Amino acid sequence: MLHKKIAEYPLVAIEWDDAETDVGWQNREDHVEPTERMAYTVGYLIKKSANHIVIASTVGMDGSTNNRIQIPLGMVKKLTDVTVGRKKMVSAAGLEPATSTPQT
Predict the structure, then answer these.
(1) What is the third-level CATH fold of 4-20+30-90?
(2) Is pTM, for the whole model, over 0.85?
(3) Is-contact 40 14, C-beta < 8 A?
């Protein structure tokens, strides 16, 4: 059984288009077309605002969290609630059920 504090946070899987950086000079003819850099992150949903989602990889027995990441919702392609007993698709915008099904 999960500890009460851990159970307060849903466990989610996020598929999102990550930012990318490159350093060094590059000639115009060497510039490449931007492409998606998909990332997949699983963690406890800590906070969600109108524009961002915050998840953590670790929750302490007192409810404290560690190793948090904040992701702009505009970068989120799919957000899935994978909490045991609550497997369902959720939308990135409002955690309502989404129309697509999870991919395995």
Answers:
(1) SH3 type barrels. (2.30.30)
(2) no
(3) yes
